Amino acid sequence: MKFDTVIIGGGLSGLTCGIRLMEQGRKCAIVSSGQSAIHFFSGSFDLLSRVNGQEVTNPLESIHSLPSEHPYQRVGQANIARLAEEAPQLLDRAGMVFAGTAKRNHFVLTPMGTMKPTWLTLDDFTSFAKNDKLPLSRATIVNLQGFLDFHTLFIKDGLTRYGVEVQVRNVAMAQFEAIRRNPSEMRSSNIAKVFDQGDALDQFAEKVNKLGKESDVIILPAVFGLFNTTVPAALKARINKPVVLLPAVPPSTPGIRCQIQLRQRFQELGGTHFLGDMVREGKFKGNRLRYVNTNNHGDIQLEADHFILASGSFYSKGIKAGPYGLFEPIFGLDVDGENEREKWFDKQVFNNQPYMHYGVRTDARFRPMINGQPVENLYAAGSVLAGSNPLKEGSGAGICLLTSLHVAEQILQDQDDEERYI
Amino acid sequence: MNTSKDYDVIIIGGGATGAGTARDCAMRGLSVLLVERHDLATGATGRNHGLLHSGARYAVTDHESASECIQENMILRRIASHCVEENDGLFITLPDDDIAFQSLFIDSCQKAGINAQAIDPDYARLIEPSVNPELIGAVKVPDGSVDPFRLALSNVLDAKIHNADLLTHHEVTGIIRKGDRVTGVELYDHQTRAKVSYHGKIVVNAAGIWGQHLAGLAGVTVNMFPAKGSLLIFGHRVNTMILNRCRKPANADILVPGDTICLIGTTSERIPYDEIDNMYVSTEDVDVLIREGMKLAPSLATTRVLRAYAGVRPLVAADDDPNGRNISRGIVLLDHQERDGLSGFITITGGKLMTYRLMAEWATDLVCRKLAVEKQCETADNPLPGSEKNDFSVKSATRKIYSGSRVVQMSAQDRHGTLASNIASSDMMDDAMVCECEGVSIGEVNYAIKELHVANLIDLRRRTRVGMGTCQGELCACRAAGLLGEALEETVQAKDDLANFLQERWKGMYPIAWGETLIESQFTSWIYEGIYGLKPENN
Amino acid sequence: MKKDTFEPYNISDNDFEQCVKCTICTVYCPVVLVNPDYPGPKQAGPDGERLRLKNPDYFDEEALKLCLNCKRCEVACPSGVKIGDVIQAARIKYGTKRPTLRDAIMANTDLVGTMASAFAPIVNTTVALKPVRQIMDKVLKIDHHRIFPKYSGEKFETWYRKHAAAKQDGFKKCVSYFHGCYVNYNFPQLGKDLIKIMNAAGYGVKLLEKEKCCGVALISNGLVKQAARQARHNVRALQKSIVENGHPVVSTSSTCTFTIRDEYPHLLGVNNEDVREQTELATRFLFRLIDGEKLQLVFKKNYSARVAYHTPCHMEKLGWSIYSTSLLQMIPGLELMQLDSQCCGIAGTYGFKKENYETAQGVGQPLFTQIEEADVDCIATDCETCKWQIEMSTTAKVKNPVAILADALDIEATQALWQQQ
Questions:
Q1: Cα separation, C272 vs B279, whole angstroms
Q2: Cβ–Cβ below 8 Å for A178 and C26
Q3: Whole-number Å distance between alpha carbons of C326 and A29
Q4: Is A316–C78 a contact, with Cβ atoms under 8 angstroms apart?
């Protein structure tokens, strides 16, 4: 099978690359080994929230204080500023509306009842301009009876510290009795499936309206709109107070919805999406990758002019750690990271963990290397890149979106160059 | 609790020995206070193999220990059936081992009263498919598994049934003396950060390796020789029988199945006394354990390692040998009145988990002599709470009310024995799962919080196995923290508690942080730090 | 660089241990929401396996048999856990209940098919009768809503020997056809269509030596020993064709193909290493030839149809719908739309059982809605049981892509292209 570009990884990076290239008329295939980490989406994409432990106000301005090997520094501040404008537009074209700007972080409420700086927030959720006070004085937190993955107590504690008067209420509904009968399945995605159809949402809204009479806002778990994209808006229309949704324990309902919307956008543009398949290995000719083989397609190779490695970090097995070293499992690319495992971690779990920085080593054009030699037509984007601790910086989604757009540009430019040359 | 109460006996140490001594004393009608710095079974009791020794391991080198073991082994099968699994053990001879050792081994076992039978290697492979197929000899012995958390807990529960008082998270900061007489203890309450004193006629030092420090507080000297032992927990049960090497005891030569997991141990390393609170497992330890473990059961090479941990054996130097050349693994009972002229203070130490009951009996006998109480020890005859005989069998307990409740109810039964009937399971809320790996329900969590002395999430883990499964708390920690916070009405503490719990889990994970464990850690961090915004400094 | 030079020994090869409890499988399980008695793939699979290894009493036969074995959990799993296999393997390893008469009858497709084919007119009329369906419902617990696939009077194998076999020796290149029970007993036309296409493409079509049912129904009904026997028999037949005669094997059923390729080694412990790669769907075989520019198909000028493709679960697991849809898209007058991949609920014999009827229809509902809303002439799909389910539950007509291709193909023009060379 022949494509212009084959993308390894179907997460935020892979899909962003795929959509961008398809929009430019390139024929792409994405190979995704299972569903991606977008399933753990909190509702917001961070660009840069902290540098050296200090909260960042203007992410664009703060990029220069990052170390030189950081992906943002290597994309370049000007490019980041430009691409940061493009990213929400791309998401918008896929049907997702985000609020926020890269020039100034806004804030969202966390499930611990604290405020967190962020870049783009999905319109399901509520953005706040300031983090020192909340524009509300009385809140009602409503949970579904038997739902253990939404921790009202923690939210209440956090809000109380902002001087908000909080009441916690539980709602029981007949529609949920069936899943509650199953001791392990009262989870957010199953609840969302119930709200996706029928009259559960109407009844729920009615109950919430009664409970929240005295409050300025209603706080609910984000369990609305899994396969049905109209549910979040319908919820807000039916509840007569402002609604603040907070993430529950993953898999995240809005995350799954976003994943589906991105995938659909990619497919509607004509992209080929191979789910549940895994790239096994690649065949090189000199410094060029000619094709890759996957588990499902066996001898039928996926050929392409360009390849993108968007296979993620450890979690997605983009890089792997064995007891005696780190490695990139598909091509054996060079990995940036310590080889001795006792150097991978800090003994305090909440400290900056060295392993979080590890990833594949790339050249100035984000091309990964084998024994120091870049592969001519292979690019790396997203969490598989070395050089940052996305968790500590609050930069994970930004790195995925922006390095992907950057790499897509490199490929488009590459192809233009080649065409000119021919 | 009444601080002006004058107890007959105050016991220091919530390990098996302290818990057993509290039970024995209480059963003999004494008024008892048991104090513990952290939680039950946090010292050597909770940091070993969980092996119900038949004594075979000691048969060749230490006849006395071996015969104590087999006697206590048989007693525990009777009185602690819900803490014990009667799964038998194999002592295997590998091509590298001297097969001649086998007959000496069997002889010694028989002399100690241990039923050791040589079996055909083919038969060994049949009854224990995980065993190294290259074995050239095998001896079957009545080893078993014992859950030390359950064992310590049920001793405490029985002590409480007999009116004993228990203070966990209370650290002894001073031993109160009146002249040559010990009259009580000064305690620091870690939860309220308050100091408090209790008085008693006799203070029993059952603090294991920390006994040296406590003796010092009382002004007497006990020399402990700490030996660190490291162990690895594997993600699931590879073996159903205990696997040992049939040779002189060495590193990493015991593989024990216990509940959902199996574990290999131990290494042995002498450490300075000032390191006993700072246990860590080194890379070398991990490598040795896996390498040696593979020789017992080759499939360990490809089994996920869940955790690594280390404990300190409370070995005691004989009094006439302060340099520790002549270390006893046997039970050491010190009457400080006789030994040091300090009355009202005794130390019970040495020994092993297997002989905790016997140690408790010796200590209690001495206490009774001093208090002129004549009641006989009954701890070997009366079953522990949870192990009472009745027809509440696993099968009849698994009523099918809700589909998944079978897992929940069977797991609860495994953990609490007959006491599982105290766990509410009347509606679906009670049966809803908090910990999916170990099948812990809301009902069980609430029962533990109410009845089993739970002050924080880590305690809850020891009572219920919450967070002990594959995900090491990734999904269940916040669920359990929420329930605990609600029950204790302590939100602020609940967040700290959650952070502490994750740190405690990480401690056992980082020594083996590769493969799935590293993935799991990264995922857990994303959830708690990334999505939840949990940070110690925020709480 | 060779892969084994950089990938060190993987520490965990216990597949279920690679589960990091992300719970994504549950999102994509079609059963959980419809039937809460099913514990969900995570509980039934990796979590349950760990408990079963602790004590086999944790095996819950009643709960685990609710798994459809659709493998959608495996497709979704980001950690590569073979969740469906873990569940099915547990049923095999720990299951104690003997299959009921009904299950045994439904599982033995060959036996029943042979008998029914002989008396096809009587059988077809009888099982279609309402009272008979009521009796089957009561006595055999086969749901009375179910319409049995019609049995053909003449088995495909019989037809082949009479009308096609001789001609096949005239081709230089040959494939063997694993026709499966459906083609043999119920719908020989699909087999005839395949022969038509393959012959047009320049390939003779042989049959395997004494093909037996792939055994998928035996596996799901707990008749594992018999399934393994049949699997070994089939693998020997495949070896004879592939290894000895150099004839690759093609099939028109995604389920038969999937079972032979993956369930044989994973669940039945039958080694198929030397034949697996060359046992595939006919559409994949054709795609490879066309993609490699070794074949060109010419289609009728006047062909016109609007078709929606439904991805059967096992096709989703194989990842092969692209082959079938690519071929369909080559037909100039054919307008193809792709339905969102969802389970139809039938899962072979699962949906036929009275106790599963409601679950099966509940699972399939979202797909049925999609189909009713799609404005097409027919649905294309590679699985025969999906076809029964969709035809029973919707107003749509369902065809195998091979049947559509055969319809649209200009045989003579296609033949002419390679005959000229």
A1: 50
A2: no
A3: 14
A4: yes
In chain C, which residues have their Cβ closer than 8 Å to the Cβ of A317? 79-80
**Position of tokens 């104090």?**
B35
Query: What is each CA distance from B48 to B54, B145, B352, in whole angstroms?
Result: 16, 11, 10
Helix (H, G, I), strand (E, B) or coil at A117: strand
Instruction: Report DSSP state, residue B377.
Output: P
Q: Which element (helix H / strand E) includes B202?
A: strand B194-205
φ, ψ of residue A143 to 5 degrees: the values are -120, 160
SS3 label, residue B317: strand
CA distance B19 to C219: 53
- pLDDT bucket at C361, cuts 50 / 70 / 90: very high
- Provide the domain limits for residue B499: 394-538
Last residue of a domain, one of C44, C74, C94: C94
Rounded Cα distance, C324 and C170, in Å: 28
Instruction: Specify the pLDDT at position C353.
Output: 86
Q: What is the DSSP string of C98-150?
A: PPPHHHHHHH-HHHHHHHHHHTHHHHHHHHHSHHHHHHIIIII-B-TTPPPPP
Does the global pTM surpass 0.80? yes
Residue C25 in tokens? 């499988």
CATH code, domain with C256: 3.40.50
The encoded tokens of residue B108 equal 């010694």
**Cβ atoms A348, C29 nearer than 8 A:** no
Q: Is B474 at the interface with chain C, CB within 8 A?
A: yes
Q: What is the Cα–Cα distance from B172 to B156, expressed in whole angstroms?
A: 19
In the numeric block, which tokens belong to residue C370?
């999609």
- The question of ipTM being above 0.85 is answered as yes
Contacts of A268 (CB under 8 A, 6+ apart): none
Domain that holds residue C26: 3-94
Backbone angles phi, psi at A300, to 5 degrees: -85, 105
The mean predicted confidence, pLDDT, of chain A is 95
Please give the pLDDT value at position B320.
61
Amino acid letter, A249: V
User: What is the DSSP annotation of B134-158?
Assistant: T-SEEEEE--EEE-HHHHHHHHHHH
- Does residue B473 share a domain with residue B401? yes
Q: Residue C75 sits in a domain of what CATH number?
A: 1.10.1060.10
CB atoms within 10 A of CB B279: 16
Strand B345-350 relative to strand B194-205, pairing: parallel
- B334 and B277 assigned to the same domain: no
Q: B-chain residues within 8 Å CB-CB of C34? A: none
> What is the rounded average pLDDT of the residues A153-175?
93
Q: What pLDDT, on the 0 to 100 scale, is given for residue C140?
A: 74
- Which residues in chain B come in under a pLDDT of 70? 1-2, 318-329, 390-404, 426, 491, 538-539
For chain B, what is the domain count? 3
CA dist C171 and A313 (Å) reads 52
Chain C hits for A328, CB-CB cut-off 8 Å, are 6
β partners of residue B529: none
Contact C24 A274 (CB under 8 A): no
User: Which pLDDT score is estimated for C370?
Assistant: 95
pLDDT digits (tens, 9 = 90+) for C254-299: 999 999 999 999 999 999 999 999 999 999 999 999 999 999 999 9
pLDDT band at residue A205, thresholds of 50, 70 and 90? very high
- Of B49, B54, B66, the residue nearest B90 (C-alpha): B54
pLDDT tens digits, one per residue of C11-36: 555 689 999 999 999 999 999 888 88
Q: How far is residue B140 from each of residues A192, A414, B118, B247, measured CA to CA in Å?
A: 55, 70, 6, 14
Q: Is residue B21 a contact partner of residue B364, using CB atoms and an 8 Å limit?
A: yes
Two structure tokens written together for C330? 């080559």
Whether the Cβ atoms of residue B314 and residue B359 lie closer than 8 Å to each other: no
Q: How far apart are CA B492 and CA B485, in angstroms?
A: 8
Residue A278 contacts C where some CB pair is shorter than 8 Å:
yes
